[in-house]
Design brief:
Layout: H1 4-22, E1 25-26, E2 39-42, E3 70-71, E4 81-98, E5 104-113, E6 119-121, E7 132-133, E8 142-145, E9 151-164, E10 169-178, H2 179-183, E11 191-194, E12 199-202, E13 208-209, E14 215-216, H3 232-247, H4 252-263, H5 265-277
Length: about 280
């Protein structure tokens, strides 16, 4: 027979495997679930075609007015980026990139943020800045999964470093999942709802409580002994008994002193000092 600790550890391992698999889903760039206004960039090409940020979607095709990718205004421009706003905090576990029209991004860095104000550079496990290997041509797809697991962020910025084919071109898909799917914070059968920068567990049944529905008030056998079952009658009797025991045995002068202390503490203190000096 396996010990309860071993069974618990095995369940945790299996759950972690499920979480990794579940948090490797396309996040909506290729499908169009992420709207055009959720994509932005610093510096886009305007000639001969507009390489807008909204064109930087995986497998996007060129058209008469677009190269079908985000293309930088100039390869010599500094501080370039392609930005994604998920509108809510999401768990991001990887990136897929492509080039287009003979151009591609050969290497890049990743910035991420919860609020769009404070940004973090994605790092290696040794705390050095991670430089991702990008594409080597304009047609292939390069996929990177994060070694340390998903990161939580609302905003992502791809920072191009090197390019090929004359300029930076990028088509992108983000791999990840919603906050609830990755962390599985709610104790079953609680239902998790993703909020803008947090999550909420809807506990079922209602006798489960706590941020993660972790407190189980549904079962009384672990909360009360056989000698005491909760009831308004018993509770009233206990409270009455306690009240009587507290008041019993007091002398009249002691009760009067309590009243004086309640009404005027200074006067009561004077009475006590007078009593002590006369003894």
């Amino acid at each position: 027979m396996y010990s309860s600790a071993a069974v618990k550890q095995l369940k945790e391992v299996l759950n972690s495997i499920d979480v990794v698999d579940e948090c490797r889903r396309p996040m909506g760039l290729q499908s169009g679930a992420l709207k055009d206004e959720q994509l932005s960039a610093r510096c886009i090409a305007t000639s001969p075609l507009y390489g807008r940020a909204s064109h930087g979607r995986l497998d996007n095709a060129p058209s008469e007015t677009s190269p079908g990718a985000w293309v930088a205004c100039s390869p010599n421009r500094t501080a370039l980026f392609l930005q994604v706003d998920f509108l809510k905090v999401r768990n991001v576990s990887g990136l897929m990139t492509q080039g287009q029209d003979g151009m591609y991004t050969a290497s890049y860095q990743l910035l991420y943020s919860m609020d769009g104000l404070r940004w973090s550079l994605y790092q290696n496990e040794d705390a050095t800045t991670k430089i991702f290997d990008g594409n080597t041509d304009d047609v292939g797809t390069v996929t990177h999964y994060f070694d340390s697991g998903p990161i939580s962020a609302r905003y992502l910025r791809i920072l191009p470093l090197t390019y090929g084919g004359g300029n930076f071109a990028l088509r992108l898909e983000v791999i990840g999942c919603a906050w609830c799917d990755a962390d599985r914070p709610c104790v079953s059968p609680g239902v998790c709802e993703d909020l803008a920068d947090d999550y909420e567990c809807h506990c079922t049944p209602d006798c489960r409580q706590g941020k993660k529905c972790q407190y189980d008030y549904c079962s009384t056998d672990t909360m009360y002994s056989s000698e005491y079952q909760p009831s308004s009658t018993v509770t009233t009797e206990i409270m009455t008994t306690v009240a009587k025991s507290c008041a019993s045995g007091l002398q009249p002068w002691e009760r009067a002193l309590i009243v004086i202390f309640t009404i005027c503490p200074l006067a009561a203190l004077a009475v006590v000092l007078t009593f002590l000096t006369q003894r």
